Amino acid sequence: MEPLQAETRRAASLPRMNICSTIAETRAACRDARASGKRLGLVPTMGALHEGHLSLVRAARAQCDAVAVSIFVNPTQFGPTEDLSKYPRQFDRDCQLLEKENVEILFAPPVEEIYPSSNSNDAVTWVVVEGLSDKLDGRSRPGHFRGVATVVSKLFHIVEPEAAFFGQKDAAQLAVIRRMVRDLNFPVEIVACPIVREPDGLAMSSRTAYLNREERERALVLQRSLQKARQQFQAGERSAARLISAAREVIAQEPQVRLDYFEVVDPDTLDPVERISRKTLVAVAAYVGSTRLIDNVVLET
Q: Is the whole model's pTM more than 0.90, yes or no?
């Protein structure tokens, strides 16, 4: 059989992706996927998929028997002055990418399905991870992690996955979700997947679509600042203050990039560390033009 014919026949034999817009449809589809003892993996996203998202899908595919992906631009994790209305939405393209990855279930609900109130911010019940939600991005974006934790808990209840896959790029989010799962006894394994970068080192993000050519070039300073901190660490420096100082000098070379934070913290508690003696998260957030970008590295002793 010719290779093209074989591939066409194989593709034709695969079930088409089940696109669900309601909670009831999604629960039924996920229940069917688990009925034969399949391990179900979930990849939560806000759409505008890029290679970073697809790497999560592939990790889920490698570790699970069936994969569900959610696409939901969650309004409760955006502040009143943030980019909810202009957040990129590319649903048809996203569906094509997910079908190529053989995703079985796509949950793409309208806002009113997740938040039945006419105003999503009028929700009565919130999930708040105390002690973590006001650190790093939570400090810069009040209420952000309340929205994240609430919608992820909803997704876990709706899909009931055995494993859920998140990117290391959102390191603070990862810490919040891990703590929520532990404290609320969710029966789900949280799998962290490595940051996927552009060829020039920029961490992949849906928000890079906002950058013009000059801003895209300036954004590389985030990665350079992290590289500087890592080089200092590899040279023997263990003082967090000195690593931060060296990194800030790099960022200062791009005066049109406005630093939000550059911190050296415990990856689980997000508390600052003074001296690096164990696994440590080095995280940066900055505004390039009006676009807020984040990145991080993990230092291992």
A: yes
